[in-house]
Write a structure and sequence with these properties.
386 residues; Aspartate Aminotransferase, domain 1; 2 domains; 43% helix; binds pyridoxal-5'-phosphate
Length: 386
Amino acid sequence: MTPDQLQPALAALDAQSLRRVRRVLDGPQGVRVALDGKSYLSFSSNDYLGLANHPALAEAARQAGVSIGVGAGAAHLLTGHHRLHHTLETELAAFVGLPAALLFSTGYMASLGVLPALLDRHGEVFEDKLNHASLVDAAVLSRAKLTRYPHADMAMLEQRLASSSAKVKLIASDTVFSMDGDLAPLAELLALARRHDAWLYLDDAHGFGVLGERGQGALALLNGEPDARLIYLATLGKAAGVAGAFVGGSVELIEWLVNRARTYIFTTAQPPLLAAAVSASLRVIAADGWRRAHLAALIGRLKSGLAGLPWPLLASDTPIQPLMIGGNSEALRLAEGLRARGILLPAIRPPTVPAGEARLRISLSAAHSLDDVETLAAALHELAHG
Ligand SMILES: *Cc1c(COP(=O)(O)O)cnc(C)c1O
């Protein structure tokens, strides 16, 4: 792309209705948001537990900011690694039941750091076709061979693993798939990793805080003994309501990442006041079982409320509930119709999802009320018959 090519390339995006624009949020993230000066009922955040604007988190950040300021001022390996980061890592490891944890500035950076730290061009990465973009980019950056298997197809994965002669193998999968809301076959993935001597990298961006009795995430569903081949990633900007991510695993793995993960080493540490906010968030996540119970009730109400529509919901028991529309223009028409009724719900189109599988990605939050779900259902029924 040369400077001269940008303007026509952008015009081409316009012509295909693929140009992405940002809308400006005023006030807090939540189920009622002010966007471009208008107020909406929103089903379009990843703030699954409603913690992004929780007073205990904001107060923890404020207090830390007042006492130690804002900027970390240096990378972790220089003087940027604050006591608040260090304490939080211990808390996170204990919370998910792993020996050690390491904080990263974002989930994207964590994956870009971990895979190249473990694999080179002699390695092979096996990825579910529906994995998040960051996992694909991490594999590419590592220079390992990238093999993608059809969604959740364990027979195909096993075949690929069996025919691989790579020295180091790594299976990477989302736990909860971000555009479908379904769960990866976690136990089968771990069994295959064991049988074929591979690492298992689980990206729990949409499971942490949501899955498990206390919100410990996907590993609570595995309830096995710790396994040195398991690498766990959770992000802290979704259900946890703050920002950042952490990788959990064996003590040796974490030590290796401190020494070799370039996105950990060559970047300024996150402001420690965010670590204080995450610590506060962990306490709320563990204590407020009602948030997960309420989410389950919302999911049930959504499923019954949307029955009878011409479009099916994908099979999902997580707060990600995709309504399958099919065509791009139909999905856009519905999203616009909802917006005109004061409801914000994104139309997800190719290339984010396969062609012909455009959808409305309904994202529920513990901050929604049952009435909010009824409002959405009524609007969709109206649009279906309009
Ligand atoms: C959001 C997301 C990420 C990236 O996490 P950030 O902390 O937002 O960079 C990684 N993986 C999955 C599956 C995600 O949904």
